[in-house]
Write a structure and sequence with these properties.
Order of helices and strands: HHHHHHHHH
Structural class: mainly alpha
Helix content: over 70%
Strand content: under 5%
Radius of gyration: 17 Å
């Protein structure tokens, strides 16, 4: 097996392993399926172009860091008024619930995601990474390029702000965001 074949195999393996996590992060950040697909493609193009610069640390956090920067670049270019769109959450229908429960659940999701869009960008990112994607504090700090203490403080403050905006239990806020 030559170097080119090994490189191609490595890239395919990285893509298969991290694609879904990156896509989920980007769909939460952008709120738009088409944008998330485009951004995911852009992330892996950047990964491919910069793979030679990878220093051998945690690959997942490196890829998520690229995803975060790609999303922020996109956000700056588009200057979104709202990060989350209703279309993403309308696709998340549970057949096990009664129609009135679904309406209540969808209304709560809209409320939660509307509240999340009103958070400062660093609070929004930490809520998505920690609360929705369930990344560790360490992984989140590496992705956001800040200390673990800052992640803890920002996450706590963001949840406190969400609780205040929604007037509900903090655990319920994250549960409803998923």
């Amino acid at each position: 097996m030559n170097d080119l074949e090994r490189l191609e195999e490595s890239i395919s393996k990285i893509y298969r392993y991290y694609y879904l996590d990156v896509y989920r992060f980007l769909i939460c950040f952008s709120g738009n399926q088409n944008d998330a697909e485009d951004l995911t493609q852009e992330v892996f193009i950047r990964v491919l172009n910069n793979l030679a610069n990878f220093n051998g640390g945690n690959l997942k956090t490196w890829i998520f860091s690229i995803a975060k920067h790609t999303a922020i670049d996109h956000y700056r270019k588009k200057r979104f008024v709202s990060i989350f769109k209703d279309g993403f959450f309308n696709q998340m229908v549970s057949t096990a619930k009664q129609p009135n429960e679904l309406v209540e659940q969808n209304e709560m999701k809209r409320s939660v995601h509307t509240a999340i869009t009103k958070l400062k960008p660093n609070f929004r990112a930490v809520v998505i990474l920690r609360g929705i994607n369930e990344l560790s504090i360490k992984e989140t700090s590496e992705i956001l390029q800040c200390s673990e203490t800052k992640v803890k403080v920002d996450y706590h403050r963001a949840l406190k702000e969400l609780k205040k905006k929604l007037n509900v239990d903090t655990g319920e806020v994250i549960g409803n965001a998923k």
